[in-house]
Amino acid sequence: xxxxxxxxxxxxxxxxxxxxxxxxxxxxxxxxxxxxxxxxxxxxxxxxxxxxxxxxxxxxxxxxxxxxxxxxxxxxxxxxxxxxxxxxxxxxxxxxxxxxxxxxxxxxxxxxxxxxxxxxxxxxxxxxxxxxxxxxxxxxxxxxxxxxxxxxxxxxxxxxxxxxxxxxxxxxxxxxxxxxxxxxxxxxxxxxxxxxxxxxxxxxxxxxxxxxxxxxxxxxxxxxxxxxxxxxxxxxxxxxxxxxxxxxxxxxxxxxxxxxxxxxxxxxxxxxxxxxxxxxxxxxxxxxxxxxxxxxxxxxxxxxxxxxxxxxxxxxxxxxxxxxxxxxxxxxxxxxxxxxxxxxxxxxxxxxxxxxxxxxxxxxxxxxxxxxxx
Amino acid sequence: xxxxxxxxxxxxxxxxxxxxxxxxxxxxxxxxxxxxxxxxxxxxxxxxxxxxxxxxxxxxxxxxxxxxxxxxxxxxxxxxxxxxxxxxxxxxxxxxxxxxxxxxxxxxxxxxxxxxxxxxxxxxxxxxxxxxxxxxxxxxxxxxxxxxxxxxxxxxxxxxxxxxxxxxxxxxxxxxxxxxxxxxxxxxxxxxxxxxxxxxxxxxxxxxxxxxxxxxxxxxxxxxxxxxxxxxxxxxxxxxxxxxxxxxxxxx
Lengths: 374, 252
What we know:
The complex is a heterodimer of chains A (374) and B (252).
Chain A: E1 5-11, E2 15-24, H1 29-38, E3 46-57, H2 62-74, E4 79-82, H3 86-94, H4 113-147, H5 154-164, H6 169-193, H7 199-238, H8 241-247, H9 252-290, H10 295-305, H11 308-334, H12 340-372
Parallel strand pairs in A: 2-3, 3-4
Antiparallel strand pairs in A: 1-2
Chain B: E1 4-15, E2 18-29, E3 33-38, H1 44-51, E4 59-64, E5 67-68, H2 74-81, E6 84-87, H3 99-110, H4 116-128, H5 144-156, E7 162-166, H6 174-190, E8 194-198, H7 202-208, E9 211-216, E10 221-226, H8 228-234, H9 238-245
Parallel strand pairs in B: 3-8, 3-9, 6-7, 7-8
Antiparallel strand pairs in B: 1-2, 1-4, 4-5, 9-10
Helix pairs in contact in B: 3-4, 3-5, 4-5
């Protein structure tokens, strides 16, 4: 198949004459358009195009005709087509080229700053409103489960308990162990100067159980499971699965949100306990290995430092964090509109919002604790 | 008859241990509108995905435009891809781009056209599928049928030699569907584009198809091949008769 085309251009005083030959298609048209752009301006009023030699032409070839018409109109004249073959005429009719498509870029122009500000404001208002209704719906659903616990989808809940809790054990264990190791190692450098090696055990235990254990676990759960909740529900929204649930008479809050929230609130505190134990084990390795502490001394110091209240407080905080992470993940998933890109945004937003809320809540709880038990 | 542009030899396809179709053999010739028929779930779309190299055959080979379909051979696969266009069942438009950008993507990537010419060509493509004026809409803002038509415009973007269409008229109103048939016939006649179409639309099949194959899930093989009018009038196979005449009752 011959894909080449020829263009002869001759510029007279009163007319620009062009002769087109060959196949006008995607291969040949870019070159022809480039040559037309090089024709010196201003153009004569008359533009004559001889199309007698055009053997094949597709919709891409029509771009040449459109460009010639534009050139003619720019100089106040009209394009005269000569010896137009039937197939070209037919194509131009089919494409209705007598009324050429609107000019202008295909890309959506970036709106001006005022429009963007307005859109952003509406978005925030909209989000706040849907947040309120989401929290309300989730709360009533969870409250109704207290009255009739049988309505909880137990199979789903157990499966989420496994995904959020059991599957996270290795990574939580590893990170906590290393964290305990680092804390012990860094504090030992200072405490050794005062001969206070034994307080390494206190520092690791207290810091982990009261603060770092719940926070680290929450951050890992937000990254692993909060994002997964948002992506799962978001994809279900895109593929109309959530709409299907609604029309089948299921409440999405009961079907999708409750199992995730309940599973998270149940297993994340357990994960935190696990995290604490591994961090203490990490500290122990440094204490016994490099600080000449005995195993018994280290453990005795750890036990005497920690009170039951500290442990319970850490576990309570962890449950609050789990509630935040799981509801934020589900909420962000619910907010997905459109397609794949929106799911990605929801996932990112779920993780960032969760971590922010976890730290914020932790600070608030710390202040409350300060006045509760001075 | 002209040389085959697609040959399928001894193709067995399936997933894991599950065989969908066994030992398929057929040719598709240049300039044909080749329609793949069959009941729901018999493997029509799977066959299409094998022909464009998205799935690997369990056995057998496929050649497209004289080259072996082997997605692992990057160079050869790209040469095949440069000559084909594919429209997927759900449209598969990119949700982060508007319709115009969806259609413009292959044009800016693979042609020498730049600037205003790309915009003009995109609008001509959308005009051909009846979507002029929707270039700034996002896919989510359109109905299913409109998305489908936009997907066809994107598949047409580079005027490929072979176009694979997976259920192009499903979800379209009869007028758009007839318009699409006209577009297929037009491209086929004027540019010689070869079409491989999976469809159920009886009226569409009888209008556009130059040849059909009918797949059968029960026997995992081709049960009929040829001109659709002849099959409708002469085939003795109960499933084929039922398909074309919409007779209730007998199972094929």
